[in-house]
Amino acid sequence: MVQPNTPKKKGESVFDYMNREFLHGLMDRYTNLAVNVFDWEGTPFPRVYPERILFDEGLATVFIPEGTDTPVCATVAQESIAKNWYGEPVSWRAIPVAGNAFSNQKLTPDNAVLIRNSDTYTPTRPYVEALARQMVNVEMTMRMNVNAQKFPFMFESTDGNKVLQQKNDFMALMECTPVFFKTDFSDVPFKVLNNNVPVITADLCALYTEYDARILEYIGVNNLPIEKKERLLTDEVTVNQEELSLAVKGRLEQRRIACDAMNDILGMDCSVRLSGESVRAVVEEPDGGEPDDGTGVDE
What we know:
- This protein has helices at residues 14-34, 49-57, 125-150, 163-174, 201-219, 226-231, 234-265, 277-280, and strands at 38-41, 59-63, 72-76, 82-83, 89-91, 94-95, 112-116, 153-157, 190-194, 271-274.
- By secondary structure, it is α+β, with helices and mostly antiparallel strands.
- It has a four-stranded antiparallel β-sheet. A two-stranded antiparallel sheet has the order 1-10. A two-stranded antiparallel ribbon has the order 4-5.
- The chain is elongated and about 80 Å long.
């Protein structure tokens, strides 16, 4: 789960603190998008709760705790999973939340249901976070490039005993604060050199946008910019849409299977559907008909 903004850690540099906070902001954005791609209905638990577990763990379980009559959704204790010859789980246990002690309850396909994030039980977070870290790196590089244009110089020190003064002078200049020296410039402890750094922010912005598009595609959000669509051939656009459609349909199918099992085994009356118009627009019927909203019911 994404952590809220935290204060600067002891000994942490401003640069590292900015990187950490920027990563938190990105992960908060993508997590909120990912957990709202699918809309659960008719469940006794919050509609985004299973999606939060699937985002982090790739596998969730729904069952009725002993001594109660209300189904709950919980994280699966991965080390407890026993599998058959084909790698399918035949028993498992749930990780209890605070105030609920059901960790010893043995769960099987007869009294519980597993919800898979995908055919391979793969959580969404690792891939998203890996690309988000690359975006942080690009963002910081852009800041450095902009600062290099704001102050396109570097210092050559002539006095190793005045490093702190040189650092303070440099930081003051970076913040557009005037620095005054004595009239006799022979005592200035450094020389100023031009760094000749080229402006590459446009290229970095394009790379940042590419990472963003890859994450949105992965979590199932149609994100191809209109201007880029206009530059692509019709076949290329179709391929992009088909890849997104297959990815979303595969994840939707796993959730549908889980809903059917919950209704049959646990006596629930739940369903799941695609919630985003940007997603539904590309998950079309094979005959090119109306977009499939995930309910399986024609309007």
